Write the structure tokens for this entry.
Amino acid sequence: MSSNIAQNYPYSSESETERAATVGRVLAGNESLAGTVKVESIGLPDEDRWWVWKCPTGDCPGLLHAAGFAVNAHAVYTLCDSCGRTYLR
Ligand SMILES: [Zn+2]
């Protein structure tokens, strides 16, 4: 588990079980988003805990959860549990 960019401090962390459940719930309700995540990210390695970040979208109260690693960047591909946008962290 590593934090990278200074202005993107993690907000919290969650267990792998919590992460998988949240990402699964968000993707289950949005088929096109699930397709996008599948194309743009690769699977995560086994970790016990993952960082959680605040969603940077306007006044969105959501949190960003790790959904995979970005295919073309050394970054974690994250998914907002509220607005459903994706961000690299
Ligand atoms: Zn959001």
